UniProtKB/TrEMBL annotation:
InterPro entries: Leu-rich_rpt, LRR_dom_sf, LRR_extensin-like_regulator. One of its GO terms (cellular component) is extracellular region. It is found in: Secreted. This is Leucine-rich repeat-containing N-terminal plant-type domain-containing protein. Keywords: Repeat, Secreted, Signal. Pfam families: LRR_1. The keyword Cell division does not apply. Its main location: secreted.
């Protein structure tokens, strides 16, 4: 009796024992090890799913492009290393890819974000370099690139994920540059986490348009300026439940933000807000504001209708030109 193998009938054929084939393999948590999976996984011509998290597999990721039904690959929490597995890129029908908790390193090829996946987990590896602009082409609902060594800005192309991206985690990398205005254009975004990076600038007013956001973490960066009230209003007009802005350099908050501080929805510890407890030393704040890491442009327009706020008729025309391919609004 083999464990971890699951059979099913091939699509379009009568459901009889004669048409049964190995459709999925689930080795999750078996503690298995092998120098390579090549010659094993790719030897099942009708395989659709291969789940093998929490084992000790190493070597190269096999080429599965010849498997016509294949759509789920989970190799998380193993000992794979080297560059991003190029055998994954041709898997056009892939719906789920999980490579987290391995020792992959180097850059992530731009075509990876063009895969048709609903979930893409690349976190807890050693990936480095810039996150490619092709991030905007992902159709994933869940995108996690946390706990790597990525550098450079969050791609402004993220606005192209509007309507599909629900949760994105950038935390604990080395991302820098200005906080992109275009993040506020991502409709349906429920979780945005970019904590533990080196991102700077003010929070764009466009963040007030994130009516679906529940968790927003920007802690541990180099953000500065005023915490916009339109963002804090989302706790009343939207779904915001947790807003973490600690360990930055904000100098003030508005009335609605004050209410969130009192209700502990908003965390602004370790900032530069006069009269607030647990703030940075005044001299540290003075040094920062005397020479901030980057001067980021402030866009004074809100690209949506907000309760109690009516943007001017020209607001749409004043949208950061980035969304149309020009440079303005924060990112580099």
């Amino acid at each position: 009796m083999y464990k971890g193998f699951y059979c099913d009938n091939l699509p379009g054929l009568p459901k009889t024992n004669a048409t049964l084939t190995v459709a999925s393999i689930d080795f999750n948590g078996y503690g298995l090890c092998a120098p390579s999976l090549t010659g094993f996984v790719d030897a099942f011509p009708d395989l659709a799913l291969f789940h093998a998290n929490s084992n000790n597999f190493t070597g190269n990721v096999p080429d599965l492009s010849a498997l016509p039904y294949f759509y789920e690959l989970d190799l998380s929490n193993n000992n794979f290393s080297g560059g991003f597995p190029d055998t994954v890129v041709p898997l056009g029908g892939l719906a789920f890819l999980d490579l987290r908790f391995n020792r992959f390193a180097g850059t992530v090829p731009p075509p990876v974000f063009g895969l048709s996946v609903e979930a893409l987990f690349l976190n807890n590896n050693g990936f480095s370099g810039s996150i490619p602009e092709s991030l905007g082409s992902t159709r994933a609902q869940y995108l996690v690139v946390a706990n790597n060594q990525f550098t450079g800005p969050i791609p402004r192309s993220i606005y192209n994920t509007s309507g599909s991206l629900s949760e994105v985690l950038f935390l604990n990398n080395k991302l820098s540059g200005c906080l992109p205005y275009e993040i506020g254009l991502v409709e349906g975004l429920a979780v945005f986490d970019a904590g533990g990076n080196e991102i700077t600038g003010p929070i764009p007013l466009s963040f007030g348009c994130l009516g679906s956001v529940e968790e927003l973490n920007l802690a541990g960066n180099q953000l500065y300026g005023h915490v916009p009230d339109v963002l804090c209003l989302l706790a009343k007009t939207g779904k915001l439940q947790n807003l973490s802005l600690s360990d930055n350099y904000f100098h003030s908050v508005g009335h609605h933000c004050m209410e969130l501080v009192r209700s502990r929805v908003l965390d602004v510890r370790r900032n530069c807000i006069l009269g607030f407890p647990d703030q940075r030393p005044a001299l540290e704040c003075a040094w920062f504001y005397a020479d901030p890491p980057e001067h980021c442009p402030f866009v004074p327009h809100i690209p949506c209708d907000l309760p109690g706020f009516k943007p001017p008729a020209t607001a749409a025309a004043a949208l950061p030109a980035t969304a149309h391919g020009h440079a303005q609004g924060g990112g580099n």
